């Protein structure tokens, strides 16, 4: 009895470990639906409780390996003991794994026919749970399966219509249809061709529900995306400041000198110069001399300097972006980060974790979040033309549903980041893939300035047009093309598709009930 349980448990864990290989930097997108296919066969015929356990192990294997890089910020830069850093990382992975446990439990618990459970319940409930994971406890939609599609041509159709998060539906749906086909083919000799087709009908119902809505959104909701003739010469600065030195007061002037030197190199030839997230490890309100210098530079060189910097004071400190004017401080533009990084900019459940007070000391780990809807930056060119940039800071790129508010009136996207917190791991590449998905969703080019990589220009198709190598100081000078027009996703967001998935589940329930009575 024990041996019969150990094998599927180990196999579920292995299948989960395979999942992160379908994301960047590995890019083996095909692994995701086949790993899910294996999970479906694994839970077939098992009790709901044991299926839930298998789903939990699958999810834990996926996230324990997929977000293993989080421990770096806790241990190497937060000073946490190794055991505590690993424990907190595993606790987060366990929480994220619960969603797969719930999925497998419900799929085996509900008394529907196999075709209805796998063809309707599995993909629709799975994408609803991914949406729920993006919303609960401030949300953590990292490794949502839709991102595995980013490098595939289908993303340029799906993402602008329904967003990368909700495009996860199609990965779950593909695994479900493969399961039904294989399962039906195994029984084909006994039950005949019509039964084989009948097994697939529920899956085509869920496909048609989402597919028809997709076509409607593309043809009737989205606006035409048009190129604007105005181009912007943008310089992206990558200072490559070691994270352990970034908040060292003795290094402050050296850090500042690095960015000022890089700025001087490109000021004359750039319309906009972007420094990375918290490039200035100080408060905006305390940096009056620096502000005056950058405003003078903007005025003399006919350029703008946009930088990451902390703002506020006392207990209210925010992670912000400031664009310095060429006139006076009152005309500076500012954006405050809305979504903060768990275990980086705030510690979840700090009241519980106060037991470990003094064991984790991450600088600025008690930040205050900004407002959800903020105005995009206005970039005035020398010839008088004005372009608008939608801003996001680091982790915020994960939340397309929020970035879309600015993007509706913006011509291009700006993301500043500091992935030095996560070292030479797969984390920064996963983050870069997510950023590329945002560019596709909103059909805007994105410029991305980071401390030590990945600094790049991303096309509206999600391609990397120009990039700096990681862990090297440098400047990336690019010509940014601006666009106007609003995608269906920018108008509808994630909630629309979540409601549609829920309606699909309700319709599936009544359809199955009707079929059962018939």
UniProtKB/TrEMBL annotation:
<dbReference type="Pfam" id="PF20154">
    <property type="entry name" value="LNT_N"/>
</dbReference>
<keyword id="KW-1003">Cell membrane</keyword>
<dbReference type="InterPro" id="IPR004563">
    <property type="entry name" value="Apolipo_AcylTrfase"/>
</dbReference>
<comment type="similarity">
    <text>Belongs to the CN hydrolase family. Apolipoprotein N-acyltransferase subfamily.</text>
</comment>
<keyword id="KW-0472">Membrane</keyword>
<keyword id="KW-0808">Transferase</keyword>
<dbReference type="Pfam" id="PF00795">
    <property type="entry name" value="CN_hydrolase"/>
</dbReference>
<feature type="transmembrane region" description="Helical">
    <location>
        <begin position="193"/>
        <end position="216"/>
    </location>
</feature>
<feature type="transmembrane region" description="Helical">
    <location>
        <begin position="154"/>
        <end position="181"/>
    </location>
</feature>
<feature type="transmembrane region" description="Helical">
    <location>
        <begin position="12"/>
        <end position="43"/>
    </location>
</feature>
<comment type="function">
    <text>Catalyzes the phospholipid dependent N-acylation of the N-terminal cysteine of apolipoprotein, the last step in lipoprotein maturation.</text>
</comment>
<feature type="domain" description="CN hydrolase">
    <location>
        <begin position="237"/>
        <end position="482"/>
    </location>
</feature>
<feature type="transmembrane region" description="Helical">
    <location>
        <begin position="50"/>
        <end position="70"/>
    </location>
</feature>
<dbReference type="InterPro" id="IPR036526">
    <property type="entry name" value="C-N_Hydrolase_sf"/>
</dbReference>
<keyword id="KW-0012">Acyltransferase</keyword>
<feature type="transmembrane region" description="Helical">
    <location>
        <begin position="82"/>
        <end position="107"/>
    </location>
</feature>
<feature type="transmembrane region" description="Helical">
    <location>
        <begin position="114"/>
        <end position="134"/>
    </location>
</feature>
<keyword id="KW-0812">Transmembrane</keyword>
<dbReference type="InterPro" id="IPR003010">
    <property type="entry name" value="C-N_Hydrolase"/>
</dbReference>
<dbReference type="InterPro" id="IPR045378">
    <property type="entry name" value="LNT_N"/>
</dbReference>
<comment type="pathway">
    <text>Protein modification; lipoprotein biosynthesis (N-acyl transfer).</text>
</comment>
<protein>
    <recommendedName>
        <fullName>Apolipoprotein N-acyltransferase</fullName>
        <ecNumber>2.3.1.269</ecNumber>
    </recommendedName>
</protein>
<feature type="transmembrane region" description="Helical">
    <location>
        <begin position="495"/>
        <end position="512"/>
    </location>
</feature>
<keyword id="KW-1133">Transmembrane helix</keyword>
């Amino acid at each position: 009895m024990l041996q019969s349980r150990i094998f599927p448990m180990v196999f579920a864990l292995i299948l989960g470990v395979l999942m992160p290989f379908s994301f960047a930097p590995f890019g083996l997108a095909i692994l995701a639906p086949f790993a899910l296919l294996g999970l479906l066969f694994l839970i077939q015929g098992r009790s709901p409780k044991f299926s839930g356990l298998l789903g939990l192990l699958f999810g834990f294997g996926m996230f324990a390996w997929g977000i293993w890089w989080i421990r770096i910020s806790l241990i190497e830069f937060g000073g946490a003991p190794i055991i505590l850093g690993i424990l907190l990382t595993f606790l987060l992975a366990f929480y994220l794994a619960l969603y797969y446990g719930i999925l497998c439990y419900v799929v085996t618990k509900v008394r529907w026919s196999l075709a209805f459970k796998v063809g309707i319940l599995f993909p629709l409930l799975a994408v609803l749970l991914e949406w729920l994971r993006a919303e609960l406890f401030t949300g953590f939609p990292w490794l949502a399966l839709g991102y595995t599609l980013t490098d595939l041509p289908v993303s340029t159709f799906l993402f602008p219509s329904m967003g990368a998060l909700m495009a996860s539906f199609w990965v779950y749906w593909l695994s479900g249809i493969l399961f039904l086909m294989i399962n039906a083919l195994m029984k084909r000799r006994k039950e005949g061709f019509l039964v084989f087709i009948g097994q697939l009908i529920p899956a085509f119902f869920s496909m048609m529900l989402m597919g028809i809505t997709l076509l409607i959104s593309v043809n009737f909701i989205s606006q035409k995306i048009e190129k604007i003739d105005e181009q912007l010469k943008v310089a992206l600065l990558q200072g490559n400041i070691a994270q352990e030195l970034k908040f060292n007061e003795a290094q402050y002037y050296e850090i500042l000198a690095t960015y000022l030197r890089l700025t001087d190199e490109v000021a004359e030839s750039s319309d906009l110069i972007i420094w990375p997230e918290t490039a200035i490890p100080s408060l905006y309100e305390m940096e009056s001399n620096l502000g005056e210098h950058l405003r003078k530079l903007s005025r003399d060189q006919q350029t703008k300097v946009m930088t990451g910097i902390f703002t506020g004071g006392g207990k209210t400190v925010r992670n912000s972006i400031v664009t310095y004017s060429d006139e006076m401080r009152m005309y500076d533009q500012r954006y405050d980060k809305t979504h903060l990084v768990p275990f980086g900019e705030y510690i979840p459940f700090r009241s519980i974790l106060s037991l470990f007070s003094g064991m984790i000391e991450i600088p600025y780990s008690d930040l205050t979040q900004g407002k959800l809807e903020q105005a995009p930056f206005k970039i005035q060119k020398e010839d008088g033309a004005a372009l608008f940039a939608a801003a996001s800071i680091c982790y915020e790129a994960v939340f397309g549903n929020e970035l879309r508010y600015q993007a509706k009136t913006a011509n291009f996207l700006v993301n500043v980041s500091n992935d030095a917190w996560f070292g030479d791991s797969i984390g920064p590449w996963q983050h870069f893939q997510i950023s590329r998905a945002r560019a596709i969703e909103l059909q805007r080019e994105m410029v991305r300035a980071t401390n030590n990589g990945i600094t790049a220009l991303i096309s509206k198709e999600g391609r990397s047009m120009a990039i700096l190598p990681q862990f090297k100081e440098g400047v990336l000078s690019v010509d940014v093309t601006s666009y106007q027009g609003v995608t269906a996703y920018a108008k509808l967001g994630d909630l629309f598709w979540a409601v549609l998935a829920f309606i699909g589940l309700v319709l599936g329930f009544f359809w199955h009930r009707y079929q059962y009575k018939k």
